[in-house]
Write a structure and sequence with these properties.
There is one protein chain. With 83 residues, the protein is mainly beta. The chain has a single domain, classed as SH3 type barrels (Roll). It has no helices and 7 strands. The radius of gyration is 15 Å and the shape is globular.
Length: 83
């Protein structure tokens, strides 16, 4: 497979602000960057509900809340002075 390295303006643990979309104005830490899909997971932004099966980690199963991905162009870096 030919994998290209895709450059992004944010990386894991950066503090970002959402600049457009439904969650405009929200701030949080980047949990994960998905460069091949052009998306990021931001802590506390776009919380979605997901049904989980019973497993060793979650013996009762059920519905859990977790962060959903948002497009990378909808976020901007907040604190660049600490880098």
């Amino acid at each position: 497979m030919n994998r290209k390295k895709i450059k992004t303006h944010v990386k894991k643990n950066d503090e970002v602000e959402v600049i457009s979309g439904e969650h405009k104005g929200s701030q949080g830490k980047v949990l994960q960057v998905l460069p091949e899909k052009g998306r990021v997971l931001v802590e506390g932004v776009r919380m979605i509900k997901k049904a989980e099966r019973k497993s060793e980690d979650l013996p009762e199963g059920g519905i859990i809340e977790r962060e959903g991905p948002i497009h990378i162009s909808n976020v901007k870096l907040v604190n660049t002075e600490s880098k």
